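Reopening: structure tokens for the flavin-adenine dinucleotide complex, inputs below.
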Amino acid sequence: DIVETTDIAIIGAGPAGAAAAAWLARDGWSVQVLERQHFPRFSIGESLLPQCMVYLEQCGLLESAQAGEFQAKNGAAFCHRTRYAAIDFRDKFSPGPGTTWQVERADFDQRLIEGARRAGAQVHFGVSVTGFHPHPQRPRLQLEDEQGRRHELDARFVLDASGYGRVLARLEKLDRPSSLAPRTALFTHVEDHIEAAEHDREKILIGIHPQDATTWYWLIPFRSGQASVGVVTAPDRADAAGDSDDQRLWNLLRQEPRFSRLLNHAQPRREVQRIGGYSADIERLHGPGFAILGNAGEFLDPVFSSGVTIALDSALRAAPLVKQQLEGQAIDWDTSFERPLRQGIATFRAFVDAWYDERLQRIIFHDRQPERIRQMIASVLAGYAWDQDNPFVSASKRRLDSLAEHCYLDQGN
Ligand code: FAD
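Re-run output (same inputs, fresh job):
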């Protein structure tokens, strides 16, 4: 049963919610997680970055995740026409793990929230947050269960980890449009039957459409022999590719020679799903008695698989601040939470911008990259986007501009 008061109320039981819940419950606080769905539930966002492993360890969930025996991942491979480049995360600039996993999120997310529960958090499934009263010491949530019964929950602090639900962004009118162009993703799971010896299951494969460099594909192999496949493109290009989402996805996949070859014997295992308008921004990530985590705040673009990393980073940044605030310290959420979190997001944004205007593609496929530069790029792609010692973090745009220019001249283009 939902008790009427708690120290910390958390909206959403995805990775951000589970990580914050585990950290705070382990620290001895009463934590209530409100989740509108029932787990296990499907979620997109299946390729993690090595930086995630640090965060999972910090909140005590690494062992829970390890028990899932997920597909190991050590890098990202890219293909465009006849070009192929593999980036190995183990050969990177920043300290920290160089490997991670490719996960079926239904299983992964359930393992995390069960781990949070074992740490002492109470988790309520089938409960939606429908209303919110901000207050510096006593914020209040309105809840509705599946029988339509309403409850109120008084907390001392609220963390919104509602992902695409964007609960507090909507209720507190904090939504602000993303500066990124709208894109559509079509995706499914397949029994992949990939036999090609050269195919590396320990890397995500990102393919670029031969004629349109802003359309790209993903192939994320799982340990089970299944894989996640998808395409990201402009909404009108998606519409023009067929009469149904199923046709659209498969027609687009067949236009890329490597994907077409690799997926020749693939058997679909899920209905094709389409989502668009997922890039989102927000005025601010905190207010009286609340802070906003993960996708419920800012979400950029899936190309570098940064979503779960940002979600976990935000949770591990917020949780110790909540503790300090509840112990009576004055916390400047702008300086201690929002600004440093957004710095890492800005690094990813510089990389996303450079991807879509093709500077980054030029850099990735350049075959005479100095080792140190390659390691710095690998670090950011491995999720170490907050490491200010890396010049591609501290001056991302300028460094990407000048490196792309150098690759252009060096390639004799
Ligand atoms: P979520 O995992 O979305 O969890 C939010 C939870 O809140 C949900 O369980 C939801 O049911 C619950 N909720 C919502 N509203 C309410 C409410 N009113 N009351 C109670 N509960 C509520 N990221 C990666 O790291 N790697 C990838 O490869 C990757 N690929 C992607 C591909 C695409 C096409 C897209 C669009 C995104 C991708 N992402 C990827 C991003 C990833 O999906 C998200 O960043 C990640 O799931 C965010 O985690 P979260 O904990 O913030 O939210």
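The mean pLDDT is 96. Residues 357-410 form one domain. Marking as resolved unless the reporter disagrees.
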